Amino acid sequence: MVNFSKKEIRIHLICWLVYIFVEVVLAGFIAEKFHSFFFYALFYVINIGIFYFHSLWVMPLLYKKSKNRLLYFLLGLLFAYALYLAGVTIVNLLLEYFRLKPSPLDFSLKYISITLFRATFFTMYGTGYFYLNRYLERKDGEMKRVLEIEGLKYQLVVAEKDFLRAQINPHLLFNTLAFIRNASKNNLPNASLAIGGLTGLMEYALEDSKSDFVLLTREIEQMENLIKLNRLRFEHLLHLNYSRDVRNEGAVILPIILLTLVENIFKHGILNNPDHPANIEIFSDETQISFSTSNLAQTNGKTTGRKNGMNNISARLKHAYTGRHHFVYGMIGSKFETQLKIYFV
């Protein structure tokens, strides 16, 4: 059972009215005569009937999951032709009875041939309508699948971003709170600075990073906030070189990306060796954002967390900057290095 929407019903009515008007006018001018309204109304009811009967009931028989579907289709087609012939004959008899038909019915081979030809004409239209419907339904299904896939991709990116935010918070929160606890006993100014820095980071990680993109300067601000927190924690034992050159204040970036890469330095790096300090460089102009890090890497073999974080960053970058970014990371000698470039043009 096919259910047509109100819009589809209106479209079908308009199409049939236009078709009937054109055919009646052309046939009338060619034959140089027109029939009564009831003549046209009765015959077009039958014509339209076989159109829908064939397209909605007979044609689907070809696609039934049955070995005998071709036989069912042929029987359905014969049944449609028989109904059409019977319907046209009954209409002719009724018109003749009510004297609305100028000539009597001549049930001859010629009459049957003309009637079946007319039936074929409308079944061909019905066949075209059936395949057009199948094509549109297939395209609609493909579009829905594409939208579903895009929706799932979007949900995946959101989940990855939330995962990255959660990944930063516990580690940073634990270490910073431990530092604040110790500093509150011996160095209240440092404890106060650490609380302010942690508050800013948590606010950014929990609220600002919900946006799809943030200002690069905002991400850098929190990245520097993270560096300051660790400088407070490690004081003179932290050996880290930081370089910043931002020439495009309006540049935007995915949130948490740079923050995660810097956080990984403090999670997995060796930062107390003055001969091998960690390095963080950020550069931006109208054409690109360039970011790189390097640090001595711990050799305890615990690289799973770092690898998961890098894979998640790669997935987010690929989704947001397809064909417009370059991101590589890995061990080079005893150092772990990352390089990220995001191109605007």
UniProtKB/TrEMBL annotation:
<dbReference type="InterPro" id="IPR010559">
    <property type="entry name" value="Sig_transdc_His_kin_internal"/>
</dbReference>
<keyword id="KW-0812">Transmembrane</keyword>
<feature type="transmembrane region" description="Helical">
    <location>
        <begin position="111"/>
        <end position="132"/>
    </location>
</feature>
<dbReference type="GO" id="GO:0016020">
    <property type="term" value="C:membrane"/>
</dbReference>
<keyword id="KW-0472">Membrane</keyword>
<feature type="transmembrane region" description="Helical">
    <location>
        <begin position="37"/>
        <end position="58"/>
    </location>
</feature>
<dbReference type="Pfam" id="PF06580">
    <property type="entry name" value="His_kinase"/>
</dbReference>
<dbReference type="GO" id="GO:0000155">
    <property type="term" value="F:phosphorelay sensor kinase activity"/>
</dbReference>
<feature type="transmembrane region" description="Helical">
    <location>
        <begin position="70"/>
        <end position="91"/>
    </location>
</feature>
<keyword id="KW-1133">Transmembrane helix</keyword>
<feature type="domain" description="Signal transduction histidine kinase internal region">
    <location>
        <begin position="159"/>
        <end position="236"/>
    </location>
</feature>
<protein>
    <recommendedName>
        <fullName>Signal transduction histidine kinase internal region domain-containing protein</fullName>
    </recommendedName>
</protein>
<dbReference type="InterPro" id="IPR050640">
    <property type="entry name" value="Bact_2-comp_sensor_kinase"/>
</dbReference>
<feature type="transmembrane region" description="Helical">
    <location>
        <begin position="12"/>
        <end position="31"/>
    </location>
</feature>
